[in-house]
Specification:
By secondary structure, the protein is α+β, with helices and mostly antiparallel strands. The chain has one domain (3-135). It has helices at 3-7, 11-32, 51-59, 84-91, 113-135, and strands at residues 36-41, 45-49, 64-68, 77-83, 98-100, 103-107. Strands 3-4-2-1-6-5 form a six-stranded antiparallel beta sheet, with helices on both faces. Strand 1 (36-41) and strand 2 (45-49) form a beta hairpin. The longest helix has 23 residues, at 113-135. The chain is globular. The termini are far apart.
Amino acid sequence: MRASDYDNEPCGVRLVRLINTQALDIAKREFKNDDKMCLYGTGEYWHGFEHSAYFLSRIFPKSESFVVNHPNYPFVIVGVSVSDKELRKYMKDHSVYHKKEDYIEYVVTPFVPREYGDWHTKKVKSFIEDIDRYSS
């Protein structure tokens, strides 16, 4: 795919490609992560997964969350998305630890595992309830 084709793709298509090609690596990285917020850009939006999603949701409480069930990973993966515009506002007051064109990493205060676990459970439960509501 040419770079110009990629640049013209909708954010959702880019997110699906990211999940299909990198979800397992991201999940493994997040399993060990307790002090970084790793975000992946897909044009107009930035996405965090698992621990990074938790950090992102604490900074942006009205952010959109989603759940990924990847066939090569035994657990569901929770993700959170924020707009590029919102993240740019945040970046004005917070230093980036590592940055590439479509990847940003911030050092953050480690989370309390129980709080993360409660948040994760709530997000997954909400997703399942939504599925049940729409399938009835």
